[in-house]
Amino acid sequence: MPAFADPVTVTGVSTRDDGRLSVALPDSQALWVKVSVHDPARPDAVLASTDELSFDWNGGWSTDQPLRLPEDAVYGDYPVDVDFRLADGTVQHWSGAEHGRAGLFGYRLHTGVATAAFDRAYTDYDHRDATLSGTVTTFDPATGTTGAARAGTKVKIAWYMLRNGNWGSVSQTVLTDESGAFTLPVTPGGSILSGTATVVAPQADTDPDDAEAIPDLDAVTTRYRITAQADKERVYAGKTFKVSGTVQRYTPNGWVPFANAPVVTTTHAPDSGNHTTVTGIMGSATSGADGTFSYDARADYTTSHYTYVQPSDYLADFTDPFSDEVTVPRTGQLSNLSATLDAYRTITVKGRLKPEWICNDQTVTLQYSKNGRDGWQNLGSAKAEGGTAGYCPFTIRALGRTAGYYRVTHGESYTLLPVSSAAFSRSRIETRIVSFDMTPNRPNRNASLTAKGTLQYKSGSTWKAYKGGQIVLVIKPKGESTWYWVVKGTTDSKGHFSLKTKAYEDATWGAYLAADSKHFYTESKSEYVDAR
User: Fold this and answer.
1) Domain spanning 431-529 has what CATH number?
2) What is the mean pLDDT of residues 417-428?
């Protein structure tokens, strides 16, 4: 079967802002189009009709002139009939009464914004305010005249604003005066683009016109440069350092002092993608007429700091602030301490220095006090370094004392405040060997030889017999430097010991205490025996 084209028909009518009637008939070749407006109360009564219509691709067929109804016609909606003849000679009829709102002619006042303009071409750093002025007119189809809109007509002003690097929509409503004029003062803080002015909330006898475009209002940026210096590189937490310098702006006359510029020092560099937010302000001031500034900046922790003019959409992106670093020494922590006092009086202390920042190459010192309160003496120091887990380990070795208290201390350094550990005690009992004697003094070679002596320990200020102490007899043959142990024994209840051996050769003899965990090591005097 042959294919047939879809029938051409009217899809609706609409009323233009100027009172003309448009017919949605998608056939530019129609030979004739006629519209008739009927009285809704008397459908057979034609109030107005015309066949003077022209075609354009945007609006279809439109009457050449606004439609005027009889003088006694009231404002409202009226059904429209459309008769048209196609190129093939076919005449068709379309009844608006059968198509609801799509078939009605809006016979009302047409009110819209006629003009809207700003009082300046752009805003800039020194001129941030602007005023939008405009007029609103009303077309009356009953008289065919256009005049000022009613006083109090509401106009919605809407635009897109580029502020802080982001687009956002803004809208405000203003009212017209008796002359149909309106004004709107604005402080945009950025560029205004794609704005419109539209009549809203009209009275029942009024149709609002389409929105009127508002001219764009650019925000022109200012270039500036800054030089600054800080008077300190190290302060205590909560204290201040002085920031001073000069700021200049670029003008058609070159670089000039930037007066009244809001200068800030912050812990963060200015963000070129965020034109207004300032994070971590340490201090601020307004520059003088000569562009100079000076103010206190507070530091609470070690940080880099940056000095620049507070960001604005009216300032060009700034990527070269004055930058420096301030060190704020913090209190570290001494933890995981362990300490041992060995039999040879060496005290070994291990631990960790944990700072809030890096701790490499920090010196820690071991101190001693008899009572643990005052009179602290330095015994030895070591470096806390090499930490990769948030702390730096250290080991201190020094000559200990018989009894008393110890602590680890870190004196103030460039990055750390002084800190000391709690005092801790370590002690051992002093011992001595007295009356050591080898008999006989000149024995024959391989003859019997006896080593005698007394082992004592100190209790308070008194030396007492040390029962059960293990004594080791040692020999150093003539011409040698090495000692060899020969025999071991234990002291009796009076601390005496008597050890039997032989006079093997000419040698030096001695004895020492094999100390336990409570006593210090001690050794006797040495005695030379000439074996014959």
Assistant:
1) 2.60.40.730
2) 96
Q: C-alpha angle 139/145/148, rounded to 5°?
A: 60
Residues 6+ apart with CB under 8 A from 187: 128, 129, 130
Architecture of domain 111-219: Sandwich (2.60)
Q: In what order do the strands lie in the sheet with 346-354?
A: 333-341, 346-354, 392-399
pLDDT at 366: 98
Domain boundaries, the chain: 12-107, 111-219, 224-326, 331-427, 431-529
CB within 8 A of 408, min separation 6: which ones?
A: 334, 337, 349, 351, 364, 365, 366, 367, 396, 420, 421
Please report, for residues 235, 327, 393, the alpha-carbon distance to residue 418 in angstroms, rounded to integers and kept in the order given: 15, 15, 17
End-to-end Cα distance, the chain: 148
Q: Assess whether pLDDT exceeds 70 at residue 448.
A: yes
Give the sign of the dihedral formed by CA 479, CA 483, CA 484, CA 485.
Answer: positive
Task: Determine the distance from the C-alpha atom of residue 262 to the mean position of all C-alpha atoms in its chain, rounded to a whole number.
Answer: 21
Q: Of 480, 483, 478, give the one whose Cα is nearest residue 524.
A: 483
Query: Which residue, 218, 207, 223, 278, is CA-closest to 255?
Result: 223
User: Which two structure tokens, joined as six digits, stand for 199?
Assistant: 């009549």
Degrees to nearest 5, angle at CA 350 with 345 and 354: 150
Name 175's Cβ contacts closer than 8 Å, sequence gap at least 6.
151, 152, 153, 154, 155, 182
* Contact yes or no for 284/295 (Cβ under 8 A): yes
Q: Which CATH class is domain 331-427?
A: mainly beta
| Strongest mean pLDDT among 154-163, 254-263, 264-273 | 254-263
From the options 2.60.120.10, 1.20.120.530, 2.60.40.10, 1.10.3370.10, give the CATH code of 224-326: 2.60.40.10
Strand order in the sheet with 191-200: 166-175, 154-163, 191-200, 212-214
User: DSSP 3-state assignment of 103?
Assistant: helix
Average pLDDT over residues 342-360: 88
pTM to 2 decimal places: 0.70
